[in-house]
Amino acid sequence: MSAAPVPLGSGGKELSKPPTDGISNLRFSNHSDHLLVSSWDKTVRLYDANANVLKGEFLHGGPVLDCCFHDDSSGFSACADNTVRRYVFGSGKEDILGRHDAPVRCVEYSYAAGQVITGSWDKTLKCWDVRGASGPEHTLVGTYPQPERVYSLSLVGNKLVVATAGRHINVYDLRNMSQPEQRRESSLKYQTRCVRCYPNGTGFALSSVEGRVAMEFFDMSETAQTKKYAFKCHRKTENGRDIVYPVNAMAFHPIYGTFATGGCDGYVNVWDGINKKRLYQYSKYPTSISALSFSRDGRLLAVASSYTFEEGDIPHEPDAIFIRSVNEVEVKPKPKTVPAPS
After folding, report:
1. Are 158 and 144 a contacting pair, CB within 8 Å?
2. Lowest-confidence range among 14-28, 132-146, 151-165, 323-337?
3. What mean pLDDT is predicted for residues 106-130?
4. Burial letters for 72-84: b for 16+ Cβ neighbours within 10 Å, e otherwise?
5. Would 70 disulfide with which of 34, 56, 74, 83, CB 3.0-4.6 Å?
């Protein structure tokens, strides 16, 4: 990636009534500017990000490691007490969709399959049918063993990408989950932090604890595989020494396909993966970036500034959520300049 000087932007407005402990994830709705936030303080919170209003709060039996929307009226959570829960926001009703044998790290809702997909530290993936739900035994569609603990999941259409400990990557077709379509190994040497599929469905990005992002493609042909590459980011040099930060979060812009990365250095960068350029860097946030999400139209970016305990239990800035209004110049790929004919 080219490291040309990039403009700096302000952090955005801070949401009131944030979680009181680490923010594990945040997600915008596909239908509105509602934002769902999961936290180690054992809550899932629902905000109207535009109005800066906390609309609901749901308490769990343990830290909540992930959350996602079903639609604007309901959502799901993945909890360290091994449960997968469903909430109806308006009524405050909640039920347990099912359980894993260890903390549930990830939850995704597939509009294509009409199913909830969860990944756990019990080294399994589970699919749940929420439509015919009448008790946990009826909702479980299948359990799929993984090579290691599940760290991150991402969906695009019928494709599901699973990143686990040990740098394993499994790619599934949701229409046939009996076995992975592809079993791959991360091209990054260190532990995977986050996987996110490209909005156009051609591949996925992986980020690692060692300040790198890899751009991967589903097509295994030689031609397609020559396009894959990795780049360094979220690093600095101090007194001649390289300081490298984990890249905790990534989010793709829904319109332009450019993407944001957030690191333990407190920075959010925006990248053009096709032209291999950094487009923008926002001014530094108070602490590590733990999660990122663009709104459905790409006009807003939610940023979780939340210490991720990479240096142990030390004094740190309070957990906060910032909502940035996104300017087109920050996320739109710049046209390649063609030299004038001589």
Report:
1. no
2. 132-146
3. 96
4. eebbbbbbbebbb
5. 74
